[in-house]
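Hi all, a correction to my earlier message: I attached the wrong file for Translin-associated protein X. Here's the right sequence:
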Amino acid sequence: MAVQKVHSRGDEHRYLNATEDEVPKRKIVENSPTLASFKDYQEKLDSRYDKYERLMKCSRDMTIANKRIIFLLQRISGPVNRDQIFKEADAKFLEVKEMLKKIASELVDDDPYLFNRAFSPGIQEYIEALSFYFYLKYKSLISFEEVMETCTFSNTKGNNLVLNPFEYILGIADLTGELMRLCINSAANGDRNVSFEVCNFLRKLHNTFASLGNVSKDLSSKLKVMKASLSKVEAACYTVKVRGSEIPRFALAEMLNSTVVDHVDY
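and the right structure:
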């Protein structure tokens, strides 16, 4: 900040014990280029912080909406109308897509990686919900390109949301927890084929992730959770295969839960 000098350096000793009124006032030069630059920096930083907060709020809303979709899809393991659940999930995904559009509009003419941490949790939750939906419907893993298609809103490149491939990997890693719940619920409901299908799918997924190595702290922690989920699924499938005929159906769910806890290495 530019100021007008009103006293010499040697005069400073005279004002050490002076009151505020006795000290000469420094006059601010309003048309200083330095002052104008700092005001410009202030406006840019305030704008960036405001955008960061808006993206965080949108990410939280996305997380809540996608969790509701996952809870809805978990009902498929019971005796329900699958088509009706998929129809309800499609309607909820349309709401999530509007949130994705909002994030994309906020990032127009900005580097998305600059604000990545603001909306990353919501994107990961979205990929988890979408991949779970895709698995239930097609019995396969959704690709990164297929996820990107859901984030394409127009032919104009700047209006579409650019996803970080690493967010896709982290979102798929979270999928294993939902598949574990699907396996146990299906086994408890007597649908053993689904349980063994999920077990084989999880094994392939775990082996693929393990081959990536220690890429990042986030991925390493998710890999530990994935291994725990796989252990629970294998324990449940073992119980169904070996002792399934001995256990009444009404007691199978409780038996599976107790067996899962016993086989998990904490």
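Sorry for the mix-up. The two ends are 59 Å apart (CA to CA).
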